Amino acid sequence: MAFAGYLLKVGGTTFPLTYVFKESYKINTQSRIDLDSNRNANGILMRNVLEHTVTKITMTTRPMWNTDLSAMMAILNGAFINAQERKLNAIYYNPLTDDYGSGVFYVPDIEPKMNLVDLDNNRILYNSFDIKLIEY
After folding, report:
1. E strands, the chain, where?
2. How many domains does the chain have?
3. pTM, whole model, 2 decimals?
4. Is residue 1, in this structure, part of any structural domain at all?
């Protein structure tokens, strides 16, 4: 299956590209995991690489008003299968294979930073910030 018009689906909902800079979509598939790897007395790295790999996805949002931030967060929050762990199912586009993959991910804390408070229109503008998904 080739690119089908979306980069990411969370909980079955397509994540709107209007919220992010498309060129910021960065994916690291099959990141290796070490368990108790260390160096021996000669300084040689002794690796214990696990079979399970991890996919990491990063996207940078566009500057957005509080209403857009709220709508975007509703999509993410609605996708959580475990809100306390911020855990969700995702389908993602993998440019290395021109195909889609899927996995269970957690979303680290999202930290929007205010840019402007528009008191005349009762709204807040937020700077760009990163959204990350890290596979379990």
Report:
1. 8-10, 13-14, 26-31, 38-39, 45-46, 54-60, 64-65, 80-82, 87-94, 99-106, 114-118, 123-126, 130-135
2. 1
3. 0.84
4. no
